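Prompt: I keep going back and forth on a fold encoding question. Comparing notes only helps if you start from a blank page. Show me how you would write down a chain together with its backbone fold. Please set it down just below, with no commentary around it:
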Amino acid sequence: MTDTPGLTGNVPSTDDDGKETVVVVGKESVGKSELVAGLSGTTPTTGNFRGTTVDIERYESEEFVFVDTPGILLGTDTETTRTAISAVEATETVLLVVRATNIDDDLEDLLPLVQGKVGAIAVTFWDKVENPTEARSELNALADDLGVPLAPVDARNVSRVATDGGGTAIDGTDHKQLVNALRDADEFPGRVHRQTGIHLDPPETIIEHPLLGPFVSIVLLLLPAAVAVHFANAVAAELSPRVSSLLEPAVQWANDLPGPLAAVLGGDYGLLSMGPFLFVWAGPTILIFAVFMAVYKKSGLVTRITASLHPYLRRVGLTGRDLVRVVMGFGCNVPAVTSTRGCSDCTRRTTVSAIGFGSACSYQFPATLAVFAAVEMPWLVLPYVGILTVTTLVYARLIAPERARTASLATENRAFLQWPNWQSVWRETRTVVRSFFLKALPVFAGIVLVASLLDYFGVLDVMGEALGPVMGLFNLPGKTALVVVMGSIRKDGLLLLQSDGLSATLSAMSPIQVLTAVYLAGVLLPCLVTAITVAKELSPRYAGRMLLRQAAAAIGFSLLIGWGGAVLF
């Protein structure tokens, strides 16, 4: 066996311990990650595959180094599929993962991709097979025909027998079968001549109902955001005053420092002032949201929701897969944008734009609720969410290329619903949280630095005063200009509306004016963290075009809300 020369970053191209490198490949939702995590019994390290920005996880066992690739979606142009295929081409040894419930189709689709490589086949979802004895006999005959060892397993329960008290396996039978299969690895043929006849369709649920299914799917997608915001607000309400009290001495000390340094550390937009908001408010939201989405993914719900909503979303240039990414943005835009690597090339940019426009992240949504509560109009959240949803869909329809509106659904057959393995949920959650801390946090620190210096030198006040007259175009008071400016930099800039300096202005505003101000400040531009992430993922040029296009759409929609609402109400 040979090493994988295409792995960079934390994934080395060679293994210093002389362990054999095995690339694990298969379609989406076949249990690859659970499989290699159980085989290795270790925590993965993450790096990028050569020439791409796609993360690939590396698991190391006593004998092998497993490289877990993204799920393959045949017939699509997703970056993740290209990366998985490139990983296969760049290595010699492959563990091909197929589903027992659809084994004949999976082998027909995937064997041409691994032809000439050396390896073994893991057959997952074996616990779903109705007649294991007869099916096992068919697998043995199939293995003889292919000349490659096959190992039937339940991916959720593949774990080495613990010698340190840390394992959860009972007997390790599946683990032993897989390891032995890899030790006996042989060359893959390009096609299969024998059919097993094993096929099992998952039972239908209410999600597949032609009328109720889309409604239930939308409720399920919005549930994580609602629960995350509710509980995060409850936690933050308890922690925020205590954290502020603890940091007060540090803020006072920072304010005694030389001018610019005092502004960067202890000013209104300084690290000590804004940092707690990041952890106290955004942190719990992201964590809860990430757990929900991990459960959805590992249980098979995401695949079903995707299929249910796709026929309706295609009309606006999105797919069901794309909507899941947009909803992810309600936790944090950064992981949502990076997850669009699994979207089709013809819809990815539309999806990224929809995230930047309509995904009210863990900063924006709590700040919005706080403003509505300050004017004793909490009911405004309902029209706000409705308007945000409708305008996001309209915006996506306006910018989507023609071919995006005829895109096929990039997914496999209906997934089995099952209780997720909590270890796999934690791995998925950890990936999202890790992305937040490693990608969003450094950008957050840079934005705080710039914003605090702009505030110190009076630039923000000048911008607010210059834009004051423009606010009249939206039927808004001139003093709301600073809120729009700060909301364009950081979404929690919306909180300026309830500050002491603007409290009188806010209390004198009508419900339509409050709604318009919050909407305009929230969607005029994506937050800088999101914009920088888009520039890294796609290109700085596209990020610039996206900013201009979003600003134009936000201005148009805000004019309609401000004056249309005033006429109607």
Q: What stands out?
A: The longest helix spans residues 212-255. The beta strands are 20-26, 45-48, 55-60, 64-68, 93-99, 118-124, 150-152, 186-187. Confidence is low (pLDDT under 50) at residues 1-14, 47-53, 160-171. Residues 247 and 317 are 47 Å apart (CA to CA).
